[in-house]
Amino acid sequence: MPSVARTVPVTPPQHAGEVPAISLRGVRKEFPGGVVAVHDLDLDIAEGEFVTLLGPSGSGKTTVLRLIAGFEQPTAGTVLLRDRDVTTAPPFDRDVHTVFQDYALFPHLSVLRNVEYPLRIAKVPRTERRERALAALATVRLEGLADRSTTALSGGQRQRVALARALVNRPAVLLLDEPLGALDLKLREQMQIELKEIQRSSGITFVFVTHDQDEALTLADRTVVFSEGRVEQAGSPQEVYERPASAFVAGFVGTSNVLAGETAGTVLGREGSWSIRPEKITVTAVDREAAAGWSSTVGVVEELVYTGATTRCVVALEAGGVLSALLLNGSGDGAPPLGRGQTVRLSWQPEHEIPLM
Amino acid sequence: MTSTPASPTLTRRLQAVLHRRPGLRLTGLLTPALVWLGLFYIAPLALLLATAFFRTNSFTGRIVYDFSTDNVVDVLTTPEYLLTAGRTVGVAVGVTLLCALLALPLATYMALVAGPRSRPVLLALVLTPLWASYLVKVYAWRVLLVPEGGLLGAASPGYGWTAVVLTLTYLWLPYMVLPVYAGISSMRGSFLEATADLGARPWTSFRTVVLPMLAPAIAAGSVFTFSLSLGDYITVQLVGGTHQMLGNLVYSTFSVDLPFAAAVAVLPLLVMAAYLLTIRRTGALSRL
């Protein structure tokens, strides 16, 4: 017997009352062999919104993307694009373009001809086609490479060509399937900024799949967190990060610091599971009293992980359990440097104790 | 270790010399193949060309070693010979097209649809015809194609050009399937989805992306199917009825008039050279 589906009603915060760009109603995808990739999903994505679908591999986020693109047909439910039912429409009949993880540039065509491709299919006259393709290449800052072969490009450049090709005839929705996965960190950060800029200036709805929580939070107007084919939480990056709805979200987005069971009872005086973000925790000498109204507990420093700008301080609590605190390596406030084995006091404001379901 | 004490040092010194001098290494590796190529391919070809410009004494049947363009001019101007050449090219083109038509869906299925477990099985099945002797296969087709009363009964096209094209297609199909399969395998990933995603219907996607991407592979396969068909004379003898191809012309004259046979043999050489030059533009020759 299938478990009762927990559908999370997800309505975009802005453009209330307008027709959503994408609307998934009770969408379910079951693959042969009985694997259910997506469980009864209800999701509306507003016009011009930048939505990231975040989740570990196998959580169903890519399947959702493929359902919107039309590469997969849902087992049940409907897919609406601007109120048009496209549930069974083939990919070429949807005003949606995809930037693929492997870019899928056509190796027999030059950069310019790759970008011109969707315009050629749409039978746009030659001169206009060229103009628009060059303009699209300019938005991704590749105008100098128009006549290059795509096989002679670096990963970052290919990614830009794929982006230009997908944007050139201004689709209603752009889908991006972990497009930055193959790039190195610096390039990825730069592309994130550019993507955000392109999205803002073009006003096209972006749906971006990633398993990288930083990326998901950086880019999104709204982040949808997936786990095992279900939406765990959907909301602004702040909401998802500061108010995780479940232990899964708390753990997957950011570092989870969960106090549960007896530990929660001892430390907080309350039962249940509670999450406290590491950067909300202050570390002080054990003999110093916590500020008035703050929660506090005592423990022994187990590990200090220096990562440049910050130091992660892992503390084994006397009450049992472990909490991490994130310390900014600023100029310091005269406090003596921490050492392993030292007993310290951890304190935080009670408003940062997030109840988990 | 039972080797003599001197030999390891000698081997080592040889290795050291070869390591220091890549030119010497390369010469050593290439010489046998080049000698083979020169002795058994280039030299006979030159002799063939030279022979075409000799003539035969019609009374004694002996070759007269005088330079004469009679044979070549004869072959190039006699309508019957040119017609035979044209038909031969026609058969080769037909076989190549048919092979490409059959290989495309088959290779597509093998490369993109079939699972990783059935893929090697299918590949082996494509190759099985190559395990049997050429003659056995052609005789099998001869039996199959017996006009009326054969295995095919009234459906048999009988002996003739159709039978020749069918038999040759059967014989050379694996040589087309393999390169096309390799070509399609390189299209795994999102290419086909990308064309559909960008608005192309299946036929447009085939025309604008699949075919251009496969052109080098098809051209590579066609080098085999075309050249093998062009030089064939046994199949046409067995299932071609009274028809003749260039190979038959060479076969039936070479014992009587060697210079003339050599002149005829120049024709498929010219066709093949022209074909390879055309195909070189697609980049197919680097995929053989």
UniProtKB/TrEMBL annotation, chain A:
Keyword Cell membrane assigned: no
UniProt-listed Pfam families: ABC_tran, TOBE_2
Record keywords, A-Z: ATP-binding, Nucleotide-binding, Transport
GO molecular function, a single term: ATP binding
Domain of life: Bacteria
Regions annotated as coiled coil: none
Ranges that cross the membrane: none
Protein name as catalogued: ABC transporter ATP-binding protein
Organism field: Pseudonocardia xinjiangensis
Lineage: Bacteria, Bacillati, Actinomycetota, Actinomycetes, Pseudonocardiales
